[in-house]
Specification:
binds magnesium ion; seven-stranded mixed β-sheet; Rossmann fold; alpha/beta; binds guanosine-5'-triphosphate; single chain
């Protein structure tokens, strides 16, 4: 899929104030610092459309980007960053939950995972919650430039085995690097196929 245009539209803390749901959208979620904003930039060929930082907790709002004037990519805050103030962290849970549960035009949500870590309780809990709520999602292993091919395969197998403890089948699984751009076409083609369906 060709990205012709990508424009920042709006940041929100109130899910109800998001743009009217008349275009399909895809959201990116995952632990703070897992690479959500970087992945969006990589997909749309823009260095800093979505704000990134080496310090966790950079994205704190729901950010809509209009792509090709016809659909949205949404950068969400991360979860699981313990050093943020308790009050702030408490306000992220409900904001993200309400957005994910209520957003009628949300085609799928990409749950980003760090393959350098063994399966983390917080990610498994989040995936479980998505399943319980019946919210469609796919998994994306990020920062794969930081592992050897062998390490990546082993890590993905470990995560998949863990997920199959509770799930009958796995959701779609992707792997990407915002650094060397691996996985870009595969992920964009997946989105294109979902945009083409009703
Ligand atoms: P929050 O908004 O804080 O939740 O973080 P985020 O998930 O949006 O992560 P962000 O994209 O800001 O990236 C966090 C850090 O990881 C930055 O220093 C990025 O440069 C780095 N990073 C992100 N993706 C990759 C990748 O694919 N490879 C490498 N090597 N570094 C990456
Ligand atoms: Mg971010």
């Amino acid at each position: 899929m060709n990205i012709i245009s990508a424009n920042f539209l709006v940041s929100n803390t109130n899910p109800a104030a998001c743009p009217s749901p008349d275009k399909k959208e895809f959201a990116f979620i995952g632990r703070s610092n897992v690479g959500k904003s970087s992945l969006i930039n990589m997909l749309v060929n823009r260095k800093s459309l979505a704000k990134t930082s080496s310090t966790p907790g950079k994205t704190q709002t729901i950010n809509h980007f209009l792509i090709n004037d016809s659909w949205y990519l949404v950068d969400l805050p991360g979860y699981g960053y313990s050093k943020i103030s308790r009050a702030k962290s408490a306000s992220w849970g409900p904001m993200i939950e309400t957005y994910l549960k209520k957003r009628t035009n949300l085609v799928t949500t990409f749950v980003l995972l760090d393959p350098r870590l063994v399966p983390q309780a917080i990610d498994l809990d989040f995936i479980q919650w998505m399943g319980t709520e019946g919210i469609p999602f796919a998994l994306v292993f990020t920062k794969i430039d930081k592992l050897s091919r062998n390490e990546l395969v082993k890590s993905m197998q470990l995560w998949e085995k863990k997920l199959l403890d509770t799930w009958e089948e796995l959701p779609p699984v992707f792997s990407t690097s915002a650094d060397d751009r691996r996985g870009k076409e595969t992920l964009l083609n997946y989105m294109e196929s979902l945009l083409a369906t009703k």
